[in-house]
Amino acid sequence: MADTASKLQLIQNNSIYRAFSGSNIYATIGHRQVGTLQSVTCSITREVAALYSFGDSNPKSFVRGKRGIAGTLVFTQYDRHALLQDIFLEQYNRTLREGQGAFNSQFAGNNPNQNLLGQPYVSTRNFADPNSGGAFVQALGLSAIDNTGDLANELSSLYDLVANTRLRYTDQIPEFDIHITMINENGDAAFAAILGVLLVNEGWGYTLDDLTSESAFTYVARAVTPLSSLTDTKSRLAAPGQLPSMASAQGLV
Q: Does residue 174 sit in the same domain as residue 213?
């Protein structure tokens, strides 16, 4: 009976479609809700190549290659920059070393202590580490050839040049996550996320013909969480095993 109930519940959930308008969509970057974002697009592309053999002009099979995730962000332009003077206001004009902790803890959900392969980051990649050069030399096993410490000092000075760069352009912003939440008047909800967003280009302009101004950004990203219904999840957790009324009405039970 429990099996039947779960199958009927699945049928019911897949039979109901819930819609959301732009006024039902909320975007959050890190811990802050974005009030000026008016458009977000996302494109997922992948390389596909056909495999051929002698004597046949038709492909025998297809092989998949690299995947790319990219899109655009369009903000309404008010009296300040949509990102540098709003979302990342506290980080603007700070050095990468000063702002690194905030981006790791507040604006990105990825574990800052691990890379994509699940291994710990080399400690010298952390601009907050004052001993970056020496740690880098040690991590690569170069201590034996760096008897005088010249290599460690040179690396430390180079890291300092980068770490002391001040955040003044959007293409300097480290990776961050965008969470998209949809909730309508009926209480239906859905969720999607774009993870590891890195801004690439920025554009804006002003004309006499437009009553509103916009600033647009293009980005690349590491991963996407597909749009998923939170209403179905909530209903399944609230009443597991309960026969849906729609199934009874349709004569399925």
A: yes
